[in-house]
Automatic annotation (TrEMBL):
The gene is sbcD. The keyword Hydrolase applies. CDD domains: MPP_Mre11_N. This is Nuclease SbcCD subunit D. Residues 377-411 are annotated as: Disordered. The lineage of its organism: Bacteria, Bacillati, Actinomycetota, Actinomycetes, Kitasatosporales. Transmembrane segments: none annotated. GO terms for molecular function: exonuclease activity.
Length: 411
């Protein structure tokens, strides 16, 4: 039995505000072509079909295209809901789709009811475990607690109970959407720690021939029978080193597993560059990244002028800019504020402040002149405000003395 294992399509997701819809369409065409070329007997989609519970219409339309393509090939597909999906929305029409060979598993109550495939060696029971939110399904599944491990273990108990009732030699496959111990995460996965510890042991899947996992976006092998296909596209720069692929799994007559990776199309490579602005603009080593999606981390001590515009002239597909100045040598403990100001002019204090807020870039000659002019204007204004008071005091004294002087004169 040959199975094509994929997951985490995240239809409708953007990459730093860049639409990935065309890239996702290209992947789905590649998936259909792979099914034909490799003569897959079934397709397994381990959750996160959509990126949001309420996906945009363009993503729904793309999913509809994929369903029609899979149905036309006549190759059965088992698909589960992930933590990004709305199980109810994804599951609409599942009864009708089943007749077209597309089996949507979105209801936790159906964990122990498999889709049955057959080949010359007998049956393969394929169980779909949608994402199980512990707080919502622990009571329904009879789990010991509201933890991911207990909830998934309760679901697997139903799988084993059904499998035990089947003829000896029945092979088994489980689809699940979870974080398994030993898996390597990336920045683009939504946290599922609500409801208890996020990760579960791989031993939860003991007793089945193959566990097709979704949720983590890197293709990886937990053990020979427990694997993540990863996402078909990169959804964050933390995935820059990922090799995006699907697993083509051959299940022999005894349940033995042989798996190989099928690479997915790469719409545009990712590059994480670090250095000063001038280094990124001039270094010939970065020539190979000029057509990549770029995340640039600038290490300049002071933020340069218009860095995004300048970088985009060399890297037209730059989508992310990060500032992370290189640390400077630790300065000695500063003196008190009064001591630091002692003996310094207003001009010097103002210039020091400019250098401080700009992380070491001191005021240039034009700025020093502007500061001097501003200080001179402030002094002139202060002097003008005080001058009338100084002049008014003698007049007041004269007014007070005036009548007395005149009285003395009359006397």
């Amino acid at each position: 039995m040959r199975l094509l294992h994929t997951s985490d399509w995240h239809l409708g997701r953007n990459f730093h505000r860049v639409s990935l819809l065309d890239a996702q369409r290209e992947f789905l065409r590649h998936l259909l072509a792979t099914v034909e070329e490799e003569r897959a007997d079934a397709v397994l989609v381990a959750g996160d079909v959509y990126d949001r519970a309420v996906p945009p219409l363009a993503a729904v339309s793309l999913f509809d295209e994929a369903l029609h393509g899979l149905a036309e090939l006549g190759v059965p597909t088992v698909m589960i809901a992930g933590n990004h999906d709305s199980a109810r929305r994804l599951g609409v029409g599942s009864g009708l789709m089943r007749h077209a060979g597309v089996h949507l598993r979105t209801d936790p109550a159906g964990c122990g009811t498999p889709v049955l495939f057959s080949d010359e060696h007998g049956d393969v029971a394929c169980y779909g475990l949608p994402y199980l939110e512990p707080a919502l399904v622990s009571a329904e599944l009879g789990a010991g607690s509201s933890s991911h491990t207990d909830v998934l273990s309760a679901a697997m108990s139903r799988v084993r109970a059904d499998l035990d009732a089947r003829p000896p030699g029945t092979r088994s496959v489980v689809l699940a959407h979870a974080f398994v111990h030993g898996g390597e995460s990336s920045d683009s996965e939504r946290d599922i720690t609500v409801g208890g510890v996020a990760s579960v042991p791989a031993s939860v899947f003991d007793g089945v021939d193959y566990a097709a996992l979704g949720h983590l976006h890197g293709c990886q092998t937990v053990n020979e029978r427990v694997r993540y296909s990863g996402s078909p596209l990169a959804y964050s720069f933390s995935e820059a080193a990922h090799r995006k692929s699907m697993w083509l799994v051959d299940l022999d007559e005894a349940g033995g597993v042989e798996a190989r990776r099928i690479d997915c199309p790469v719409p545009r490579p990712l590059a994480r560059l670090r250095g000063s602005l001038e280094e990124l603009l001039d270094d010939p080593a970065h020539t190979e990244h000029e057509e990549a999606w770029v995340e640039a981390t600038l290490t300049d001590a002071a933020r340069p002028h218009a860095p995004m515009a300048r970088l985009s002239r060399r890297f037209p597909h730059i989508v992310s800019l990060v500032f992370d100045p290189e640390p400077v040598a630790e300065a000695p403990a500063p003196a008190s504020y009064a001591r630091r100001l002692r003996g310094r002019s207003d001009q010097e204090i103002a210039e020091d402040f400019v250098g401080h807020v700009r992380t070491g870039r001191e005021a240039d000659s034009r700025e020093r002149r502007m500061l001097g002019e501003a200080l001179a204007a402030a002094r002139a204004e202060e002097h003008a405000a005080e001058a009338p008071q100084e002049q008014a005091a003698p007049r007041a004294g004269q007014d007070e003395a005036g009548p007395g002087v005149r009285a003395e004169a009359r006397a």
